[in-house]
Amino acid sequence: MKDSGVFRIVEKTSKNDTKSRVSKGKRGEIIAAKYLSDLSYDILEVNYTAIDSEIDIIAKDKDQIVFVEVKLKKTKRFGSGFEEVNIKKQKKIINCSKIYLRDNKYSQDTSVRYDIISIDEGKINHIKNAFGSIY
Questions:
Q1: Rounded to an integer, what distance in angstroms lies between the CA atom of residue 54 and that of residue 56?
Q2: DSSP structural state of residue 47
Q3: Owning domain of residue 82
Q4: What is the CATH number of the domain that holds 107?
Q5: What is the overall mean pLDDT for the chain?
Q6: DSSP letters along 61-102, please?
Q7: Rounded to whole angstroms, how far apart are CA atoms 83 and 63?
Q8: Exposed end of the chain (fewer CB within 10 Å): N or C?
């Protein structure tokens, strides 16, 4: 597994001060990365940025590259995290993923998947193939 830095953040902070020292987004990414790692995914990148977009987690699930958007919500009062990943956000993630694949010399035949992990009120919800590269 590539050393992405996510686990170093957790190691450097105690359980009591993780919330105060790590942003809400980072907390969600730490939880999601741990969840994926526990499912035997290899974490390749965290917070990959290209042009004007970011992918929260890039992982490998067997022979498939998985691009993961993470949403952390304390309450569902304004909807779930899944609902925040609109078409505009999906297009940005897909475009960013294409740059990642090109820059890391993956072939055009590489199998990819776009997942969303929404952590709603402390519960992890993982949608595989949440959207696809149809644009």
A1: 6
A2: E
A3: 6-131
A4: 3.40.1350.10
A5: 82
A6: ETTEEEEEEEEEES-STT--SGGG--HHHHHHHHHHHHHHHH
A7: 28
A8: C
